[in-house]
Amino acid sequence: MTFLKGAISMTRKETVELLAIICANYQREAKTPEALAQLWGHVFSAHRAEDVTGAAFKHMLNPERGRFFPNVADIIYHLEPWRRENRYGITAIAPPGPTERAAMDRMMKRRKKLNAAV
User: Is 26:65 a contact under the CB 8 Å cutoff?
Assistant: First the structure.
């Protein structure tokens, strides 16, 4: 499997190989529809093949969502986990550590206290 070697960006051949593996996992016809290969190739052309492959395997191993054939959004969900918002509505580049979480909790308590006083 050449797509595991880590090219700079995902090529068409790597895209088709990955889709063939995904189709085999979901017991779909191994022949990849051209439109699907073009879509995935376009969307993931800026990503490394190993990252997209890893995201695809994360999706397939997910007990809930992994039961269904992945769409582009499912793969992006695993590719870019840092874009998810936390419970404070803040989009963080890295998950907050214990110190940052404690500071955010204190900030939210102060905010609730101020809102209750108004």
Answer: no
